[in-house]
Please model this.
Amino acid sequence: MKVVMAWSGGKDSALALAKTLSNGKSEVVGLLTTISQPYDRVTMHGVRRNLVQRQAEQIGLPLHIVWLPPNPSNEVYEKFMGEAMLKLKSQGVEGVVFGDIWLEDVRSYREAQLLKVGMTPLFPLWGEPTEQLVSKFLSEGYSAVAVCIDTEILPAEFCGRKLDEDFFASLPEGVDPCGERGEFHSFVTYAPFFAEPINVKVGERVQRGRFLYCDLVEVEYCFCQSGFTLTQV
Model:
């Protein structure tokens, strides 16, 4: 079955894609992401479009973009997504892979929306303990940065931090280790299926209501006589 990966650019998307690629039951033919048109950034995560395009290049899959207006209603969102699903279906895509882990209402919503267009939702991470997923993330060499946090749940200093052992160990009690309730969102800079890492630096932080975002900018390392320097791409 040909499928696309619902791709936010974060760690759960990456872990779900890795499991789908390894089990061999489906053929992943692309990544699907939603971009807020006026901001040219991934919805909710706030990551620049060029960075998710770089991820797609490192993975070796085409990136399918659903352009959304600012703050779309559910009706508008479902219209744009439905049109995108029908277009993919006409190209032979039969299913969509999601990185959801245990939120029943989110899963039910996705199932209902895909049922309307006759496509199959897949949830390869479903029911896995989030602590085990974090352990897998760390042990297999993934790298990511927290790009958005809910400041009603997490202190501001979590925004822009690397998702390493210290990050997960310092999460307050009651916070899901994978941020499944939306406590934080991330951007993956390296996964085992990337050709090369994506080098980024943390830029400006912006508060939007209860959410704090940090801008990521791609950089490249250049060697000169004085040593390595960083150059913004």
